[in-house]
Specification:
Length: about 325
Amino acid sequence: MADPALLHNHLTTILNALTSIDRRLGRIEATLKIPNFNNVNPAISGPPSSSSPAINPTTGGVQAGQIVTAPLPPPPPPPPLAHPPAATALHHQQHPRPAVLIHNNNSHNNQPTNLLTPTAIPSTTFIPLEPPPNGYTISSRASMQEELDQWTLPRGYSMRIAGAKVSGKRKVRWVCFRGGEARQHRAPVDDSVLLKAKAEGRRKPTTDRASKKCGCLFKFEVIETAKDSDVWVLHYPNEEHKVHNHGPSDTTTDPRARKLPAYMSAEVDQWLREGWLVSKIQEELRTRGFTNVLNTDLYNRKRLLKKEGGEGNVGG
């Protein structure tokens, strides 16, 4: 005996195929404008022909010898069809899904990870070198540098402290990291010296490095709103200090853009103490999304750890 479930599946498949054929025939009839005789109104079509079955008005039945065909039950509604790719793309474009923030509980710092769906492309765009607005509020002195970095680094520049007023109503002066003039302590190094250092595999002399300072006048002041309130407001001395004289900097040339968060910096220090190679650390950083760190930054940190803790505490 056949399996009832298997027989039911076969019948369902056949019914769906017949339903699909019926829909296609309906579209062909509509295209060719063929009338559907099954739905013809008797009042319009006129009197029944001689071949039509005669109904007995007294009994309401059919005369003897006549063959009556019972009408078929209406087919079940077809299963919902999947949206075509074009309609799906248009729907996602008109109704984009928001980005989802998922917290990774396995991470020691519980840093949120931003998972963007394929249709949720971040629309936030940054104007290069855009200055923070006058009246920009800083929540505290301790987080001032970090809050300013959140504005300036995505726009291709960073700020450094040029001075501060610590008595009464406090004030901190900030200038562009490319402000000021470059100072030449020594004469430029001859090209032959550079070629010799390169041939011997030594580091080139530091005096041939180009200074990042270019006399940029961009600056502002962050002033405390009230004494000991620890709430700060940004203020520009005048309009000429709201414009840079250079283009946006690359993320690898700005030291502030290459600085790791505190939790990641502590982990890198631990790797250096365990003797990890710089290449292995760079690979691990890239997998976590930190692509701006230079090998020089890691070597400098390695030397600093050796100097602070002794040669035996840092491997390699």
